[in-house]
Design goal:
mainly alpha; Na_symporter_ssu; single chain; membrane; transmembrane; Putative solute symporter protein; 86 residues; 2 strands; two-stranded antiparallel ribbon; elongated; 5% strand
């Protein structure tokens, strides 16, 4: 494999990871609000459950997705031998 082929494969894998994380976040952020009225019938810590999940769950989900993207990027770096030497 030439150096250009390795770089293309690396960027293809990074693009796939980015697209997967973006689609996951978009689907959850677009689909989940449709269920908020039904979830607001229940309460958690005296807050409506839909509000609580959207307010706090979105931040937690974003943190999980960032961590997952970081892990995927690290894995792609190792697979394609794209580590930076300082």
């Amino acid at each position: 494999m030439s150096d250009d082929d390795v770089k293309q494969a690396y960027w293809r894998s990074i693009s796939r990871i980015s697209l997967g994380m973006t689609v996951t976040l978009a689907v959850i952020m677009i689909v989940f609000p449709f269920f908020i009225p039904e979830l607001n019938a229940y309460r958690f810590l005296r807050f409506p459950l839909g509000y609580f999940l959207l307010a706090h769950g979105a931040v937690i989900l974003l943190a999980i997705l960032i961590y997952g993207f970081f892990g995927g990027q690290q894995r792609a770096d190792r697979v394609h031998n794209m580590t930076i030497q300082f």
